[in-house]
Every structure is written in structure tokens, then in C-alpha cells.
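[recover] target loaded
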């Protein structure tokens, strides 16, 4: 198995006694999109700044494509592409002028600058605007230029902080397609608070809260948690809720209004068939039976709340 393109070990950042990031360790491999999630103040932006080399950690290690970011910063940063929430654009330049400048500051050989610029212009869908001033472009096109400058030197890892913030729905869709295309050749770390974006773009998800990683899972693993594990039922002649609670697999019964109940159950022990059978034989008058699908937001909030309750 190939080595990770980016890895961190016991990464921490302290401000006095406050631990903004506390002993965070993870790795990302080639071709992966890693979603980095967390509530405001959780330590996301601080972590992104440390990964991009814009903020020194108090403790820990960061390795980029085999180079230690702390002891070999020039070599490591050469393998990083970074798109902050506000793209670092010189708006008085045309698109082509700015990307040519970006190629030079990323130390691309002079003989290869034109091909590098032409390549990102095509990949990022900028062909029709290369002669326009960046200041006159829409927010969506400015974001494309931001992505272009982040990948022009063909880095191993591309770090994007809220890449679709402030865009309209059409622009968001276009930028998502572009990010997925970028991930075919690079590893991408995507910091976002837009949960549907994570489902559409990411292979793996990490959740940070109060400076600590509290979850690291694949999208497939999160999808498992999103599968139905509760039933909403309405009974015309309901039994005592303790009788419902005694059904095999039921872990909790919530008594709702109008003879409605929410039955929580172990995912591997779906009680639907038994419930229907008992409702018929004991004349409970089953009027409604609806499996409840959990959204990624539900799973996210549950994980955060469980962590805060500890």
C-alpha cells in the first residue's frame, strides 16, 4: 500500500491554557477526498492553517508527501495547494496574468509555465474569461481561478476551506464537479459546514469538536448510521407502551400525541414483521407504520451531542 500523501501525528495548537486543537492524528491517501467537519469554534480553521503551513503547531508532526512540514518547510509546501475561504486573488490582473504569476511564484520552470497555465485554464473551465479582469468575474468564476492557482503546480495535496461559500446553486454544482475532477489526480481535504456537500464529494469524513477528533469514518460507514433505526407508528387501540417495549429488538419507546409512538430498535433486529403480526392478532388497529430515515445532519448532531454529554 502506498504511503499517505499527508499525515499528522498528535497535532496540537494551544493559546495559553486553551487547547484549540488537541492531539489530532490522521492520514489521507492519493485520490481521496477527506471531509473535515465540526461546529463553529471546534478547531477546523486552526487545523487547516497548520496543515497549509500558515500556522505553527504547538506540538506534533505534519508530513506532506514524505517531507516534514516543520523541519523541511520549503520542500513540504511545494506539495501543497491551498484555497482559503477567501481566494487569494489579485483582482486588478486578468485571469491569464494572475495564473502566469501563480506559476512563477510556485517555481514552475519558465519553459513549462505556458503549458501549466493552459492546463489549469482548461481544467477549471476558464477558457472564455482568460483576458478578463478578475475583479469583473462572478463569484463562481473567481472561485474557479482560486482553485486553478491551488493546483497549477500539480501538488500532492489540495486543501480547500469552504470552497462553495457564497455561491449560487448553479455555481455550487459546477465547483463540486471541478473538485471531484481535481481529486482524480490529487488528495483533497475539504473543510465545510455544508453536510450534503460531504455526501456528494467525500470518500471519508472526520468530525472535530472542542479541538479533538471524535469521528473518522467512510461515507459508507456514515450511510450505515443513516439507515432507519426507528419506526413511527399510530395505533387506534394501542397497548401499554411497556408491551411495545417488550418486542424483540426494541430499545426505546417514545410516546407521542394522538396514539403515536416512535419505536427505536437495534438495526440488525428490525421489529416490523413482529409488530404487524401482533397488531393483527391483538387488534391494535395499526393506522400508520413509517420507517424514519436519518439525515447526515441527524447523525452529525447525535455524535456532537453524545460527545458533549461525556
Amino acid at each position: 500500500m502506498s504511503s499517505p500523501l499527508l499525515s499528522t501525528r498528535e497535532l496540537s495548537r494551544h493559546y495559553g491554557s486553551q487547547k484549540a486543537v488537541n492531539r489530532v492524528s490522521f492520514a489521507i491517501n492519493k485520490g481521496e477526498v477527506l471531509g473535515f467537519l465540526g461546529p463553529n469554534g471546534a478547531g477546523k480553521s486552526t487545523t487547516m492553517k497548520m496543515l497549509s503551513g500558515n500556522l505553527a503547531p504547538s506540538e506534533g508532526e505534519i508530513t506532506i508527501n514524505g517531507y516534514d512540514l516543520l523541519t523541511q518547510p520549503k520542500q513540504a509546501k511545494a506539495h501543497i495547494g491551498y484555497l482559503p475561504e477567501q481566494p487569494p486573488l489579485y483582482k486588478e490582473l486578468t485571469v491569464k496574468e494572475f495564473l502566469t504569476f501563480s506559476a512563477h511564484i510556485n517555481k514552475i520552470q519558465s519553459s513549462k509555465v505556458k503549458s501549466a497555465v493552459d492546463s489549469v485554464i482548461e481544467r477549471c473551465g476558464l477558457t472564455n474569461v482568460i483576458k478578463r479582469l478578475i475583479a469583473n468575474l462572478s463569484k463562481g468564476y473567481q472561485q474557479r481561478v482560486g482553485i486553478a492557482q491551488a493546483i497549477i503546480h500539480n501538488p500532492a495535496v489540495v486543501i480547500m476551506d469552504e470552497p462553495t461559500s457564497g455561491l449560487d446553486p448553479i455555481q455550487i454544482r459546477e465547483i463540486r464537479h471541478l473538485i471531484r475532477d481535481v481529486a482524480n489526480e490529487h488528495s483533497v481535504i475539504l473543510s465545510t459546514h455544508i453536510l450534503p456537500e460531504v455526501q456528494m464529494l467525500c470518500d471519508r469524513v472526520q468530525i472535530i469538536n472542542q479541538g479533538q477528533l471524535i469521528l473518522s469514518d467512510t461515507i459508507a460507514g456514515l450511510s450505515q448510521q443513516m439507515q432507519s433505526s426507528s419506526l413511527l407508528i399510530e395505533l387506534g387501540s394501542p397497548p401499554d407502551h411497556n408491551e411495545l417495549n417488550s418486542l424483540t429488538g426494541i430499545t426505546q419507546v417514545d410516546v407521542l400525541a394522538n396514539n403515536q409512538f416512535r419505536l427505536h430498535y437495534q438495526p440488525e433486529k428490525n421489529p416490523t414483521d413482529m409488530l404487524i403480526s401482533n397488531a393483527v392478532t391483538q387488534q391494535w388497529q395499526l393506522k400508520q407504520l413509517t420507517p424514519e430515515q436519518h439525515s447526515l445532519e441527524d447523525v452529525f448532531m447525535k455524535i456532537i451531542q453524545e460527545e458533549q454529554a461525556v
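[recover] notes: The radius of gyration is 25 Å.
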